[in-house]
Specification:
The chain has 918 residues and is of the alpha/beta class. It folds into five domains: 162 residues, Trna Endonuclease, Chain: A, domain 1 (3-Layer(aba) Sandwich); 125 residues, Rossmann fold; 146 residues, no CATH class; 136 residues, no CATH class; 94 residues, Alpha Horseshoe (Serine Threonine Protein Phosphatase 5, Tetratricopeptide repeat), CATH 1.25.40.10.
Length: 918
């Protein structure tokens, strides 16, 4: 067992100690599933997850094996508690043959053996199998890798998971994509790595960089405690952050900086074409245990001593790629093929596949290549590609035809799989026609796409493609998954082309409805032309998509009415729309159609504040479509308004328990539970599953999709303080929203996120480390605030908060004097501003007002009182008044957050030293 595995076991035992009884009971049920490799039943529960009677904590389906869990601190001291658990379990399950006892405390192998002997001596005939925290860790280490319940188990072991993700058993290297032929450059690069801690291997696209890098890793991995493979596709267009980076085995993040400071690692960045200097700098800074780093890139970006250029393969390897080790041509002809094609692996593989599939033979290939070489030197690669594609077309014309039809270098994975199926996609991948660009898109090299456009002109499948795209849009309009949005975002030109040519008017309606769903309706430059098209498509308003377009037009019309300034007009328009939909509803028989109309009626009632009626409509939807996630979302929102926390919690628990749920729904629930009054739900589904949350946010991030920005607007402050590395990773993936000029709410949420990021930079390195980033972030945030309609004190206060952090106190005071209300938070802002200006008496005066206002309101929220007292102590300390020590002590006592409590305690110690020394 190496150091990493020993460290993992220690972390598991530490994580288990802090679990309460209920958490440990659920956790150990999963452990028993691991041990038995079968489903385990939790103790009897009703619909609301409340026990209906005393049984063992859990059991296998036949109740021959039962489990008990205990979290008592001295569980193994005198065996009284485990003996009681054994007797209770057997009493309630007479058929039990084996009893598993789990404790989150350490006992040791000898003590566990003594417990089994003790049970036997006391007349227990059943087999007793005790597991302490260390033995539980061993079970996880041995069995978790092949299990489907990894995520469920590691919800309860957050710090252990950080090590699990990099264990040698876990962080497996990817497999070679094809037959790999060892290249001499491997040993040359290894030799160079022996003398340098980091090497960049660079060369043309398709030259074989990934395969060489993988070959090197396989050779030298025994020298390291683990190998970490970072796939460039998984971090494309994102800033590389060593504190939170995604490894290829998991769609999760690891703290690479800490790992490099603790363990000897072989670190591989594959296909990285930006920020290589920053990688080198960070790697050298954190490398404390003689780790090595290998980067593969298209072009050279490090100094000569740290680089190695990869060129075309050798003649011998070229022959192996072409002929698969079985040369069936004369040596002279073989030399011609090598000469004519060059020794570029991508072209060689395409040719090999074509020959393997009997698309070409060597004789015809030589004739083609001789012809090409006689015709031209310029553009020879393109001509060769054309000839090869022309031959491949004969067996793969449909697959190639769809690429011509889509006519885009970046292709939505979900639509390509729909159009030609997994087998068709695999054909294209196998022939190196397309590659996997990232989790959302395939890509195709421009040379190959140009060849397809030249060589593939058959249009016989167009009707089939039309039909499948129509089917895809109908299906995904219902679930609105991220693949759907990626398709619309990236292929609007294709959809408009189909729209212009289609004679099927319902298909036209489907296309326009789909595009509206993916367009910010506040963007009048885009939405107005779509509205015009939609209006022309509504005739009798009888078909399903006529109804949907009509509803969208109604919502757009409502949006153009200022709800605050013209409430009566807004409500009248909404009620007119409701009347129209009710008339339509009365004429419908189809359940799906009726549920859709009911859903929109419910939304309209919700918009005008008639929540009770809206709730009834969504309940009707559930009668037609049980457990419809979109209706449940609306019910959760209404329940939240009504302070019905129980209903919100029940629905949220159900949504997050689903194995498959539309990403838009998950994001909406993340947004809902980000509110301050759902701290428990936020802790359960965000804080304790921060890897999953971060992955979902990053998966959804697109400059054209506003939902991630809305979530971050609510939770960015929480993330930046409690999960700074994850927050930085999210922000580094966050582009400026493309619709920001048309969407006031989007702009403000983006500005809030920038405030949190500015604070993060300030308190995690400050100007010494982050000066350039801080200046850019401040400038961008100020621009967005100045362009925003700061029509509430909350919005003004958020801007003031930024100005205080930036120490622009005069401007902050100017903005703060625009506050309309007197409340504790506005007084607090003024106190901070006056303190920043050096007027501590006014600072104390205003923070006293904040404290008194909060007490008078009857809230007495400890976190707020603690924050106010801390601000008062700061002002008193600024006046060199020793009473600040008493004030700060009171703040520390009231502060519920341990991290803040610890920070303030350090501050108190410094202040005490200062006053004692004066």
């Amino acid at each position: 067992m190496n150091l990493l595995e020993r460290s993992f076991k220690v972390k598991v035992t530490e994580d288990l100690k802090i679990l309460n009884g209920e958490e440990f009971e659920i956790f150990t049920r999963y452990i028993l599933e691991l041990i038995l490799n079968e489903k385990v039943i939790h103790k009897g529960q009703n619909l609301y997850a409340k026990p209906v009677g005393y049984t063992a904590d859990f059991a296998n389906t036949e109740y021959k094996i039962i489990g008990q869990s205990g979290t008592d601190e001295g569980y193994f001291d005198d065996f009284s508690k485990p003996t009681k658990d054994i007797k209770s379990a057997i009493k309630n399950h007479a058929t039990a043959e084996e009893v598993y006892l789990f404790s989150n405390r350490y006992a040791g192998t000898a003590r566990l053996g003594d417990l089994k002997t003790h049970a036997k001596d006391n007349g227990v005939t059943q087999k007793i199998l005790p597991y302490d925290s260390e033995r539980i860790a061993e079970v996880i280490l041995d069995k978790i890798l092949a299990s489907h319940i990894v995520d469920e188990i590691f919800k309860y072991l957050p710090t252990s998971y950080e090590l699990f993700k990099i264990l040698p058993k876990t962080s497996l290297l990817p497999a070679h994509k094809d037959t790999y032929y060892e290249r001499i450059e491997e040993n040359n690069i290894i030799e160079k790595l022996n003398h340098k801690s980091i090497i960049q291997a660079y060369g043309l696209s398709g030259i074989g960089k990934t395969e060489i890098t993988l070959g090197i890793a396989q050779k030298v991995s025994p020298q390291y405690e683990t190998v970490l493979w970072i796939d460039g596709d998984s971090i494309q267009n994102s800033k590389i952050n060593f504190n939170a980076i995604k490894i290829s085995k998991f769609d999760k993040l690891i703290n690479l900086a800490t790992i490099l400071e603790t363990y000897k690692v072989l670190l591989i960045f594959d296909n990285i074409n930006a920020d290589t200097f920053e990688i080198q700098e960070a790697f050298v800074r954190h490398n404390k245990k003689d780790s090595k780093c290998l980067i593969s890139s298209l072009t050279k970006s490090l100094d000569e001593e740290y680089t190695f250029q990869l060129n075309e393969v050798s003649d011998d390897i070229a022959k192996k790629i072409l002929f698969g080790g079985n040369i069936e041509v004369q040596e002279e002809d073989c030399a011609k093929i090598i000469t004519y094609t060059g020794k570029h692996p991508l072209i060689l593989k395409i040719i090999h596949s074509a020959v393997k599939n009997n698309i070409l033979n060597w004789e015809s290939l030589i004739l083609e290549l001789e012809d090409v070489n006689q015709l031209t030197d310029k553009g020879k690669n393109q001509t060769i590609s054309n000839r090869i594609i022309g031959k491949i077309r004969q067996a793969n014309e449909k697959e190639l035809s769809i690429l011509n039809y889509i006519n885009n270098r970046i292709i939505s994975k979900s639509i390509l799989n729909k159009l030609i199926g997994n087998i068709g996609v695999e054909k294209l991948l196998a022939n190196s026609i397309i590659g996997k660009d990232n989790s959302k898109y395939y890509s195709i090299h421009q040379i190959i796409l140009d060849s397809i456009k030249t060589e593939v002109t058959n249009t016989q499948w167009l009707n089939e493609f039309y039909t499948k795209i129509k089917s895809y849009l109908i299906e995904h309009n219902e679930i609105k998954d991220i693949g759907f949005y990626c398709f619309i975002f990236n292929h609007k030109d294709l959809l408009f082309s189909i729209f212009d040519k289609a004679s099927d008017i319902e298909f036209k309606r489907i296309i326009i409805y789909s595009i509206i769903q993916s367009t910010d309706i506040k963007n009048s430059s885009q939405i107005d032309s779509l509205v015009e098209k939609a209006q022309m498509l509504i005739e009798e308003n009888k078909s399903y998509y006529e109804n949907l377009l009509s509803i969208e037009l109604g919502e757009i019309k409502l949006l153009k009415i200022d709800k605050k300034k013209d409430k009566e007009k807004y409500e009248l328009e909404a009620k007119n729309e409701i009347d129209s939909l009710n008339k339509l509803l009365a004429s419908l028989n189809d359940k799906a159609h009726k549920s859709t109309i009911l859903h929109h009626i419910g939304k309209l009632y919700f918009k005008i504040g008639e929540d009770a009626i809206a709730l009834g409509k969504f309940e009707e939807v559930l009668e037609l479509k049980p457990n419809d996630t979109f209706a449940l979302l609306q019910i959760a929102r209404i329940s939240s308004n009504a302070k019905n926390d129980k209903r919100v919690k029940e629905i949220t628990a159900y949504i997050f328990s689903l194995s498959e749920c539309p990403l838009s729904i998950l994001l909406s629930f993340y947004e809902l539970i980000s509110n301050n009054n759902y701290s428990g739900l936020k802790s359960t589904h965000i804080d304790k599953q921060i890897d999953l949350f971060t992955a979902k946010i990053i998966e959804a991030i697109d400059s054209r999709y506003d939902q991630p920005y809305n979530i971050l607007g609510k939770i960015s402050s929480h993330l930046s303080y409690n999960f700074p590395e994850y927050f930085e990773t999210i922000v580094n993936n966050l582009p400026t929203p493309s619709n920001i000029d048309f969407n006031e709410n989007l702009r403000f949420n983006f500005a809030i996120t920038l405030v949190s990021y500015y604070k993060y930079l300030k308190y995690n390195g400050g100007k010494e480390k982050n000066e350039s980033k801080m200046e850019k972030t401040l400038s961008l945030a100020k621009i967005n605030f100045e362009l925003s309609d700061l029509d509430t004190d909350f919005k003004k206060a958020t801007y003031v908060d930024l100005l205080i952090e930036a120490m622009e106190f005069d401007l902050a005071l100017e903005k703060a004097l625009e506050f309309e209300d007197e409340n504790e938070f506005n007084f607090q802002k003024l106190s901070k501003i006056y303190r920043g200006q050096g007027d501590n008496s006014k600072a104390i005066e205003n923070i006293d007002k904040a404290i008194q206002f909060h007490k008078n309101s009857g809230k007495n929220t400890l976190a707020y009182i603690a924050a106010f007292l801390n601000d008062k102590a700061e002002a008193e300390n600024g006046d060199n008044n020793i009473v600040c020590l008493t004030t700060l002590k009171e703040a520390i006592e009231k502060q519920p957050t341990q991290k803040t409590k610890d920070q303030w305690t350090i501050k108190l110690d410094k202040w005490t030293e200062k006053f004692n020394g004066s």
